[in-house]
Amino acid sequence: PAARARPAPPPAPSSMAAVRDRSLRAGKVSYDIAKNGHVAAVLTLARAKYRLGDSVQALVRMNAPDAMVRIVRIAASLESHEDLDASMALLPTGRIQKATTQVYATHHENTLDTRQTSFALVIPSGATPEFVTSGIRHGWSLRLSLLCLLYSSDAADDMQSVHLVGRSIIK
Fold it and tell me: Which of 142, 164, 146, 149 is nearest to 73 (CA)?
């Protein structure tokens, strides 16, 4: 009797493919955003990493009844930017980043009487993915700006307006 040839087993995934797969399947991540030691908001992202064409889904919890910080307005933007090695740069780092920053999606909302809000910003499928070379780093970020009222511990009627900006890297 002729022996039947068995098909070869599929190749084992590389460690890089396994890491990429794990990071894309990873659960939600949360970040506390604080001002003067008081939590102003909690940003929760549906995943830790995203691909081109994905929608960055976020939930922001804020304005708890006992909070010392009240969020009045929230602005979120999905941006890409480039960092150049200092030996290649003709301009200061801040001016280079300002010149190379591109905003792809934004969300603005008044939130004075809101306990939580959500938004979704789409990463264009034709955009440049994150990469690093010997002299250039192209990265993505989610910029979250919060306009808030800070209650003084001395008097609840004494309010100061402050502006918080938080960043979280989107890869």
Answer: 146
Higher pLDDT, 156 or 149: 149
Residue pLDDT, tens place only, 101-116: 999 999 999 998 899 9
* pLDDT bucket at 152, cuts 50 / 70 / 90: low
Q: Yes or no: say if 159 and 72 are a contact pair by the CB < 8 Å rule.
A: no
Q: How far is CA 92 from CA 98, 99, 130, in A?
A: 10, 11, 22
141, with CB counted inside 10 A (0-12, 13-18, 19+), is middle
Give the burial string for 88-122 (b: 16+ CB within 10 Å, else e): eeeeeeeebbeeeeeeebebeeebeeeeebebebe
Average pLDDT, the chain: 81
Q: How many CA atoms are closer than 13 Å to the CA of 143, on its beta-carbon side? A: 18
93: phi then psi, degrees, rounded to nearest 5: -55, -45
What element of type H or E holds 151? strand 136-151
* Overall average pLDDT of the 63-88 stretch: 89
Tokens representing residue 113 in the block: 């009487």
Locate tokens 């309010």: which residue? 159
Query: Are 104 and 75 a contacting pair, CB within 8 Å?
Result: no
Classify 123 as helix, strand or coil.
Answer: coil
| Measured distance CA(20)–CA(158) in Å, rounded | 49
